[in-house]
């Protein structure tokens, strides 16, 4: 009843050049994705926010008598509607 068990680790072949390139390419892709995700999460620098705050954002406060502009309908949309009516 004595059974000879081979407990040595299985032989793993050496990775080929293509497998090595694929492995490192996947690592670089993962690092690039993490950098992109972190760039969207981390807020921008303070110097960028300060330069935006210097410019006047609200023109209504400086000229209260100025009328608000009503956006004119786009001519392309008018042309589409007219061409549909002609059909």
Automatic annotation (TrEMBL):
Keyword Signal: no
Keyword annotations of the record: Membrane, Transmembrane, Transmembrane helix
Membrane topology value: Single-pass membrane protein
Family matches, as InterPro entries: UPF0239 (IPR009621)
Cellular compartment(s): Membrane
Transmembrane parts of this sequence: 20-42
Keyword Transmembrane helix among record annotations: yes
Region (Disordered): 45-87
Bias (Basic residues): 77-87
Any one of the GO CC terms: membrane
Annotated family: Belongs to the UPF0239 family.
Name listed for the protein in its UniProt record: Protein MANBAL
């Amino acid at each position: 009843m004595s059974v000879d068990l081979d407990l040595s680790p299985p032989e793993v072949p050496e990775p080929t050049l293509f497998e090595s390139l694929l492995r490192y390419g996947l690592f670089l892709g993962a690092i690039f994705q993490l950098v992109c995700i972190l760039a969207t999460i981390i807020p921008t620098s303070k110097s960028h926010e300060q330069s935006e705050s210097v410019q006047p954002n609200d023109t209504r406060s400086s000229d209260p008598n100025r009328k608000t502009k009503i956006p004119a309908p786009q001519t392309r949309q008018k042309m589409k509607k007219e061409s549909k009516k002609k059909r």
